[in-house]
Amino acid sequence: MKIATYNVNGINGRLPVLLRWLNESKPDVVCLQELKAPQEKFPEQSIREAGYSAVWNGQKSWNGVAILSRKGPIEEVCRTLPGGDNDTHSRYLEATVNGMSVSCIYLPNGNPYPGEKFEYKLDWFQRLSKHAKSLFRQEQPVILCGDYNVMPTDLDVYKPEKYINDALFRPESREAWQALLKQGWTDALRHLYPNEPIYTFWDYFRNAWGRNAGLRIDHFLLNEAALRKLKGAGVDKEVRGWEKSSDHAPVWVEMGV
């Protein structure tokens, strides 16, 4: 089974790119972030015609997450990360699909640092870590995937010295990431490719794509049951080069039975 995560950066404006990728790559389960569409504007009909059922949590102009499946029903568990009673951002969606727990995550960017947005990022990270601890103990495979807006190590950014005071690379953000890993979660791509530079995002500016000046900020975290099924992982890097594409590329894992 192929499970993918993709920050589409506006689902309606980039729908042709999304549909082309779904047709060519044929992932079985897909987590989408940054829909930038209210609930009623999600292109459900087009997604269904592509062969996928969907649940989504939209938000006008910003944020928004969705889970798609072409293999079995999606049983929604929750669409709000616990602990944020006053948090109105659509950044989390959790469901059961084919006997797996799948959480779609769009973690706050946090820039500019320092400031309220960075504090919100760290608070959201803490809430995620608390919830993840209970998810990790489940006997079924559990996958936490999406745009985490964090570059865990120097290997995940083309020029580390440029990002010293960027919220995605601040020590506080990387420490929050490490706190998650210490619960027992496995970073799927790093598990399979421990020493290779891997990028999932290339800015639209300064010819970042052409220079391969990228960042790895889209991640898969697996619990022990999911790790036992892991067969492969990768980035559909070429999608970033398509016309009118998102500044992210799809990331995927292959899971055995």
From TrEMBL:
Keyword entries, A-Z: Hydrolase, Magnesium, Metal-binding
Origin superkingdom: Bacteria
Transmembrane parts of this sequence: none
One Pfam family this sequence matches: Exo_endo_phos
InterPro entries per record: AP_endonuc_1, AP_endonuclease_F1_BS, Endo/exonu/phosph_ase_sf, Endo/exonuclease/phosphatase, ExoIII-like
Family label: Belongs to the DNA repair enzymes AP/ExoA family.
Name the record gives this protein: Exodeoxyribonuclease III
Lineage: Bacteria, Pseudomonadati, Bacteroidota, Chitinophagia, Chitinophagales
Gene: xth
